[in-house]
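Support reply, case 0932

Customer input (verbatim):
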Amino acid sequence: MSLDTPSSVHAIILSLDKNKILLIKRRDVPVWVIPGGGVENNELPKDAIIREITEETGAIPTSIKQIGTYLPKSKWSNTSFLYLSSIDSSKLKSSTKEAQEIKFFNLNHLPKKIPPPFLEFINDSQTFNYSYKKRIKSLTMLVQFKCFILHPILAIRFFLARCGFPINSN
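Our regenerated output:
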């Protein structure tokens, strides 16, 4: 993969007992997601995930392991690298420039509105069958259309953020 190919990185950060997952509530599109974001030009994915975790949680990751690669299904998605990471939860900031809230959720009681493909990433990470490579299944045109119909304001905010015009919430 060339470094100029659009790609993203995402982190699964579990509690010590592995029953809870860390989610952030984004400022630009106020939904709960796993930490992550875009890989910058000439940045390695592993460096990008360290940067993204630190920016979004205030905590520097203590371990990083790539557990999966997701190939784009359409031009609306990127190659995504999924990492398993650990952090010192005492270093978490309750709010950062990019996240309104940061919270651990029980894996059996996740928020209802987790947009695709994040729930797919979370579910796949629980198989503990690491180093997989697969196509993103949950980000179809039908799913995107349904999200737009059910949540038009969130869909528009997401589209604007993807185009470089984020609307940040306080």
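We compared this against your earlier run and they match. Two observations from our side: The chain has one domain: 7-162. Residues 32 and 114 are 6 Å apart (CA to CA). Please reopen the case if you see a mismatch on your end.
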